[in-house]
Amino acid sequence: MTALNEYSQKDILAFIEGEWGSFPKRFNPSDIFESLGITGDDAWDFIENYSARFKVDLSSFLWYFHADEEGMNIPGGIVFTPPSAGVKRIPISVMLLLESANAGRWMLEYPPHTLPKWRYDLFINLSFLFAFLAALTAWLAFKIF
């Protein structure tokens, strides 16, 4: 397979440093997200910026293999497993980013897995939020009038 681009490891490291500042002493090039503490929305922002900078097609990228969701998934996550908890985590390495940048597409093949059709955990969370807001509104209305 012929490389589309000619990026180097130095280009990838410069991008990471530009996104997150100087590297901590415990930086592990084999597991960028873990060593930099990247998770949730920060992980998605990082990958989107990486895609834009190196022109990488992310259509096959599956976030839930690499990072947890933003915030706490309570109470829904207690009853129903969120996608990131249902699969084995796969680290994102400098070499994976370099290989994907040079190929112009995400170069990771994910293991077979099945996701639920619906995100029941999020449905439960939203239900609790709406119930809380309705109760708060009723309490405030009763208190005011």
Q: Quick gist of this model?
A:
With 145 residues, the protein is an all-alpha fold.
Provide an overview of this structure:
There is one protein chain. The chain has one domain. It has helices spanning 9-20, 32-36, 40-54, 76-79, 94-103, 120-144. With 145 residues, the protein is mainly alpha-helical. 17% of the residues are buried. The model has no long low-confidence stretch (mean pLDDT 81). It has six helices and no strands. The termini are far apart.
**Number of E strands:** 0
Tell me the helix content: 40-55%
Task: Tell me the structural class.
Answer: mainly alpha
Characterize the quaternary organization of these chains. single chain
The radius of gyration over CA amounts to: 20 Å
Q: Mean pLDDT, rounded to whole units?
A: 81
Give the overall form. Answer: elongated
Q: Please provide the ordered H/E string of secondary-structure elements.
A: HHHHHH
As residue ranges, the low-confidence spans are none
**End-to-end gap:** 73 Å
Report the major sheet: none
Number of helical stretches of at least 4 residues:
6
Instruction: Note the beta-strand portion.
Output: under 5%
Number of domains: 1
List keywords for this structure.
145 residues; mainly alpha; 6 helices; 49% helix
Q: How do the helices and strands line up, and which of them pair or pack?
A:
Blueprint: H1 9-20, H2 32-36, H3 40-54, H4 76-79, H5 94-103, H6 120-144
Helix pairs in contact: 1-5
